[in-house]
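Amino acid chain
________________
===
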Amino acid sequence: MLVMGYMSGTSLDGVDVAMIETDGESIERFGPALLVPFTDAERAVVVSATQDALDWDGYGPQPASFAEAAAVIDAAHERAGLELIAQAGRKPDLVGFHGQTLLHRPRRQLSVQIGDPQDLADALDVPVVAAMRQDDLRAGGEGAPLVPAYHAALTRFLGLKGPVGFLNLGGVANLTWIGADGELVAFDTGPANGLIDLVVQQRGAGRYDDGGRLAAAGQVDRQVLADLLSHEHFRARGAKSLDRYDFSLDWVWDYTLEDAVATLTAFTVDSVALAVGSLPEAPATWVVCGGGCHNPVLMQGLRERLGDCRAADSVGLRSDFVEAEAMGFLAARSLRGLPLTFPGTTGVAAPLTGGRLWRPACAAAMVQG
């Protein structure tokens, strides 16, 4: 079927939306894809709700700002979906909707994504699968990372021989290890772009470290780096996931912007390298996707530590749209009752499907009639 998937990540660039043809097991072909940026006003609303979510932390009534941010997310997703449908010249058969994450607290079975799947289904007149983390959380899993099944399908599509490492560098870095026999191991390795972006934005220097120029001009503080790597996350084994706000940035005000960004860039590299020790075997090949693969300083650091480390674009994939494609792929799996999460990826006891289906109101009325 032709599926359309969305991703609106914690970097808050905007809404990624992409189409692929798939049965939820293999990939037939890639369709069109695009990014619809948030306006400054939209981004400010979501940033405010994210800060409120951190203060709330899941206790008591949800902050009123969540509803305002959800309206922004719904409008942006509808705008992006309608634009891509016009570009494709046809509607997809199914949509995978992730929503915007405001808070992730898996130890309390809590992961908050805002956005209304029913509104999206009605606006696009296409069935929507969403809430793909919740069954895993209720079953004792981490609810993340969600994309390993898609990384495995991409490995087969590319004809790569295992072990292969897929590394996604979004707000948080997560890896998927695909063994020669198809075994999956996955977890969040640590921060990727999220902390760097926050520091750059706090200093009024833009939205991210464009071209890695700030990191290249700075010096790494090895003591701060050691302190960051002493976080309990790096001592944990097995399935584990993060919120990008799990690490304090109080220390950065004592440093120049360049030195702070250089240290945080090294933090991303070192935390990924540290994660290799938790894998059954070091990957022979790494495929890197997400915004971080466009940062040459970050990529050079990873190549020095990991070896054969390729940006997804260089092997025929779309670095910026892998996660959006994955949401469509997972929607197809959900519709067929196939597993979305696995013991080696989220720590759930057995392979588990997930997600709920929202039908357009007109279609639902016809079924009831």
Observations:
- The CA atoms of residues 203 and 257 lie 7 Å apart.
- The chain has two domains: 2-145+322-368, 148-320.
- The mean pLDDT is 94.
